[in-house]
Amino acid sequence: MARRKKTISINLPELGGGLIIADALMGGAPLAALQGGNIAGALKGMADRMKSKTVQSEVIRTGVGVILVKAVAASIGQRRVGKIGPLVMRI
Asked: Could you read off the pLDDT of 21-78 as tens digits, one per residue?
């Protein structure tokens, strides 16, 4: 019996959305606190940044964009967009 090849599936819209949201929340002081090992300070800084209207709107726009991309991709039917070795990129 042949052994099944292991693959790692990467969901591109969710990965991209997560990176954009992390960038919005971690910019500036929270990132510096996290790099210094101050996890509590980083979490407090992220909470303070989330109170900003511009960060809130960026997070909401990103979430809506990810939902729209997934809806369009589901209607098209082709979910797999590429493969590099064991990595499979999906929409």
From this structure: 988 888 778 888 888 999 998 899 889 889 989 999 999 999 999 999 888 888 887 7
What is the span of the domain harbouring residue 58? 8-90
Whether residue 13 contacts residue 90, with contact meaning beta carbons closer than 8 Å, is answered with: no
**Structure token digits, residue 73:** 């991709």
Q: How far is residue 64 from each of residues 14, 17, 52, 55, 83, measured CA to CA in Å?
A: 11, 10, 19, 14, 27
Q: Does residue 1 lie within any of the structural domains?
A: no
Is 29 within the bounds of a domain?
Answer: yes
Note whether residue 3 is domain-resident.
Answer: no
